[in-house]
User: Which sequence fits this backbone?
């Protein structure tokens, strides 16, 4: 048989296979991998809302073939400029170069909690189109009534350590960028993307904002300059995939909390009241340093937060005393008093950002001593004084002490090491 | 316009059937033709011939899936035109590459002694395709039915070009063994 004849024979195979290969892009992906629950890293800060001025009054929409943007890489510019289903070339976005960024922050919401997205919820969020390396995971954020506030997805790319983080909300937020030129909008599948490239130090952030089916999407990816070219290609692919949602999708109504954590908040107005708190009260100091006034003492428990904390002050001096459960995540900060390199500030001159080795930074910032090992000498090694015009010249210190499964963290300014040590030793006798 | 309405236009001998077909499937047919023929002029002729053939085939045919029906006509017309072109020393190199891959498991001879039931061969290929995972099957179809380039297939399926080439090579070997075991001497 000749090869041309065999090619003709192939023409008569079952039509369902021909149809399958043609509509693959629009069908549910059978090779979409199940995602494990992971907490995505994103810059949604809990602070007061900032009003972001409209710095970009003029935008230039790019037509589908990007033909009007100088220097812009275009899609296939063959004689036939129509989009060809079978011979499409990747969509390209215009990365607006940003010189600075103003972050928009959502207002702090008491009782905001998160839950990992389950398989059903992820399936709803996955766009019609995907690439083989794209795995999705993420979490949903709720208020303490169980209302969905936001969804954060982490989508892997061909750079395993550099996922694209996508925040989805029903309100506009995100960062505003100061651009070096006029903003250019990139259109993909009728979605208008504002795509940015912003460099800080050794990190380049690729970002994009878009409104898709009345939801707001913010995309972000952090890479190095060596990874930039590949990262841009992957980032564009992700944007293209998320532009393929059908009308009314994604339907976020299916995302509901499995359990609304109990929120407990109690305010104490005196130290005596706080000492009577059943969980952590016994770990509060027996008295306050001379001249320090009563301030608000707060007992808070919600999802991952569980503590009793007090803050007192005397002029520019202050004392913070926080009692919380010991967690395995704290284990890397445990230190023996014998290992002075983990906590002795005399070894690390200011600025400590330069003098403290990277691998010791967390433990030097806030070491945890075992209560039975703690010595006055160790407390002194954590204490230091600074000559700072306009501020107190008293002792400053920060460290933690472990009492079984409870940790007491002390942050003090203008309180003597002897007072702190005495109060901590008193807790040993309880 | 959905396929049923377009087909009904043909049955009603309404001349709007052709513009409706071109509007919905013009790009689809063009891409198949260009894949095989490699040049716009020949591809346009084949696509126009597709519409003419569709006008003549419908009725009596009433295809359920118009895209596949038209795609097959375009493909056949394009392959015929390709054979004509290579006789004249013209032709898309892409098609030559695809056909050379197919040549790996056919004898290349046109012997009248080789009795073969075409229907049985098609059925065997269908059965072979049914045994494949969906993605591999689609990669095979995109290459040998649609004549997509390796790079187009790689992009479509999120694979590297090397991975596509290796996959196709293995599938050709598997198909060859499969057909050989079932007595097909190609």
Assistant:
């Amino acid at each position: 048989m000749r090869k041309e004849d065999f090619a003709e024979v192939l023409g008569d195979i079952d039509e369902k296979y021909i149809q399958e290969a043609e509509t693959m892009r629009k069908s549910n992906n059978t090779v979409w991998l199940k995602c494990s629950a992971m907490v995505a890293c994103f810059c949604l800060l809990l602070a007061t809302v900032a009003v972001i001025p409209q710095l970009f009054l003029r935008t230039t929409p790019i037509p589908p073939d990007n033909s009007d943007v100088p220097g812009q890489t275009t899609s296939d510019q063959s004689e036939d400029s129509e989009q060809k289903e079978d011979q499409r070339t990747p969509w390209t976005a215009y990365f607006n170069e940003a010189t600075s960024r103003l972050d928009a922050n959502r207002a702090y919401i008491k009782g905001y909690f998160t839950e990992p997205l389950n398989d059903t919820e992820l399936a709803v969020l996955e766009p019609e189109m995907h690439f083989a390396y794209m795995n999705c995971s993420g979490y949903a954020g709720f208020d303490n009534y169980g209302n969905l506030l936001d969804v954060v997805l982490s989508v892997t790319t061909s750079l395993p350590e550099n996922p694209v983080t996508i925040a989805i909300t029903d309100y506009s937020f995100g960062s505003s960028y100061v651009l070096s030129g006029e903003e250019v909008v990139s259109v993909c599948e009728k979605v208008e993307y504002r795509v940015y490239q912003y460099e800080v130090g050794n990190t380049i952030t690729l970002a994009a904002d878009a409104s898709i089916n009345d939801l707001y999407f913010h995309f972000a990816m952090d890479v190095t300059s060596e990874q930039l070219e590949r990262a841009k290609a992957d980032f564009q692919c992700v944007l293209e995939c998320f532009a393929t949602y059908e009308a009314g999708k994604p339907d976020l109504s299916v995302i509901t909390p499995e359990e609304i954590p109990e929120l407990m908040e109690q305010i104490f107005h005196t130290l005596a009241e706080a000492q009577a708190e059943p969980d952590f009260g016994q770990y509060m100091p027996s008295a306050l340093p001379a001249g320090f006034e009563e301030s608000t003492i707060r007992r808070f428990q919600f999802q991952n937060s569980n503590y009793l904390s007090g803050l007192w002050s005397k002029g520019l001096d202050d004392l913070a005393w926080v009692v919380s459960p010991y967690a395995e995540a704290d284990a890397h900060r445990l230190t023996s008093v014998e290992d002075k390199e983990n906590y002795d500030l005399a070894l690390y001159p200011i600025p400590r950002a330069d003098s403290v080795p990277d691998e010791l930074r967390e433990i030097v910032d806030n070491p945890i001593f075992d209560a039975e090992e703690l010595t006055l000498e160790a407390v002194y090694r954590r204490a230091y004084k600074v000559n700072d015009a306009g501020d107190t010249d008293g002792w400053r210190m920060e460290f933690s002490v472990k009492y079984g499964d409870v940790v007491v963290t002390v942050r003090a300014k203008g309180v003597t090491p002897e007072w702190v040590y005495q109060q901590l030793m008193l807790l040993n006798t309880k | 316009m959905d396929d049923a309405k377009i087909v009904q236009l043909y049955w009603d001998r309404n001349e709007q059937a052709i513009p409706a077909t071109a509007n919905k499937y013009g790009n689809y047919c063009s891409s198949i033709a260009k894949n095989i023929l490699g040049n716009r002029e020949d591809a346009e002729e084949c696509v126009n011939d597709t519409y003419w053939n569709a006008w003549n085939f419908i009725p009596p045919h009433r295809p359920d899936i118009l895209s596949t029906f038209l795609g097959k006509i375009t493909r056949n017309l394009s392959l015929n035109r390709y054979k004509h072109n290579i006789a004249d020393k013209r032709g898309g190199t892409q098609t030559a590459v695809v056909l050379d891959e197919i040549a790996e498991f056919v004898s290349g001879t046109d012997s009248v002694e080789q009795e073969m039931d075409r229907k049985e061969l098609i059925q065997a290929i269908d059965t072979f395709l049914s045994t494949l995972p969906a993605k591999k099957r689609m990669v095979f179809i995109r290459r040998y039915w649609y004549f997509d380039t390796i790079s187009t297939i790689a992009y479509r399926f999120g694979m590297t070009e090397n991975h596509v080439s290796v996959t196709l090579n293995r599938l050709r070997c598997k198909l060859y063994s499969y057909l050989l075991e079932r007595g097909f001497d190609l």
